[in-house]
Structure formats: structure tokens, C-alpha cells
Amino acid sequence: MSPFASSPAVRGPVPQDGGSINKEPVMTSTNLPVPQPAGDHAGQLRHLTRRLATDLADQLRAQPPTGQIVDGARTRLHQTINRYRAGDRADDATAIRLSMDLRIVRIRDEAWLASQVEPIVMTALLLDVADRIEPEFLAPVGSLLAFTAWHLGERDAARRAVEQVLAREPFYSMALLIQMALQLNVPAGALRDRMPTLGEIDIMMGPPQPDWLQPLQWTLADYLEAAR
């Protein structure tokens, strides 16, 4: 499903304490490939992705309140983080839908903050999601993976993740930002004090606006056109 499935990645157990960055890391770069879905499962994932994308595109065409979509995505994100924090994992539908949610910049930025606070938990979550999604939904997931790898000191893994994202979407802003930081040898810790809080993001972005959903709508349209 994802190009990460055949690439070296940062993998390891998810600690029950959430993997605080102030504790000794328990995740190391083992250069193990992310398992590819078995043939039947891969087909099931493609079918499920088409169904979820179609349903979501239809829902968005009905112009529901933006806040309703954003609130649902935020709830799904935090419920999924809680599952991985507890050593569990998301089901296929949740993983695929979360990859779509992350096309909403407000949701991606919230996941970005979570990746700074709990990089090990988020790495486990993102790798698991990346293994089950179609390439059209890869950019935010891959960029967040690049960030967590960079944050954990795995610069080579971060660089590979960025390259894979930009090979598909050359102008994806988060990937470009991380690529620049890596090229300039900026330490990940330098960003720590500059990241806004959730409250500050809410103030900067204001209440949910319909244009927040446009990147998601464009991605769904491109995916469904290609999947015909």
C-alpha cells in the first residue's frame, strides 16, 4: 500500500508510559521493513479505502458544518493515540480514515504537536497507518513520520521519509520544512520551544472554516478519479 512498506524505518515497542522524550529511548533504528499487507488483505484495504473515500466525498458535497467534520477528526485522532499508548492498534477503517483526516491542516498540526510530546507512540501509530493507506493519502502521514524520526535522532530515516513524500508531492509544505531543517543540520530540539500550544493554534486559526476542508476534498477527488 505505502512506499514506507519497503523502506527502512524506525520501529520498536510502544512503552506503556507513552515514551517521554526525557527518558532513555526504547525505540531504535533496526532497518526492519514494515510488513506488507498479504495479497487478500491488500485488496480488502483498497476496497475499503474506495468505500470510505466515496462516503466522505459525498458527505463533504452535502456541505456539513465544518466544525462537525473537524471535531469528529480530532476525536478520532485522540482515540487512536490512546489505543497506541495502551499498546493496542487501530482497525483498518480507523487507520484509513485517519489518513484522510490528516489532510485537514488543523488535524495534521494537532498530530504534529502530539508527535513532539509522544514521538515513540506517534511513530508506532504512523507506521501502522502508513502500511495500510494508498499513496494519495501519504503526504501528511509521511511528513509526520519524518518529524518523529528527526525528533528521535534518526536523521537518515527522517530524510528517507521526506524524500518519499516529496517524490509524490514536491510542494508539500511540511515535508519541505523538515527537508530544509535536515539540510541545515538544525537540531530537533531547536523547534521544541517554538511549537505553539493547542490553544495558540486555536487563536491563530480561529473557528473552523469551510476552506479548511479543501485539501481533503481535492485529495479525495484525485484519488477517486484515479481509482475508476
Q: What is the beta-strand fraction?
A: under 5%
The number of domains = 1
Low-confidence stretches: 1-35
Any idea what the radius of gyration is? 17 Å
What is the overall pLDDT average? Answer: 85
Helix share bin: 55-70%
Largest sheet, strands/sense/barrel = 2 strands, antiparallel
Number of helices, where a helix is a run of at least 4 consecutive DSSP H or I residues: 11
- Along the chain, the helix and strand elements come as EEHHHHHHHHHHH
Give the neighbour order of strands across the main sheet. 1-2
Structural class: mainly alpha
- Give the strand tally: 2
Q: Indicate the overall shape.
A: globular
Measured between the Cα atoms of the first and last residue, the distance is 17 Å
Question: How would you describe the overall organization of this protein?
Answer:
The chain has 228 residues and is mainly α. The chain has one domain. The chain has eleven helices and two strands. Helix 1 (39-61) crosses helix 11 (214-226), helix 2 crosses helix 5 and helix 4 (105-117) runs parallel beside helix 6 (138-151). The longest helix has 23 residues, at 39-61.
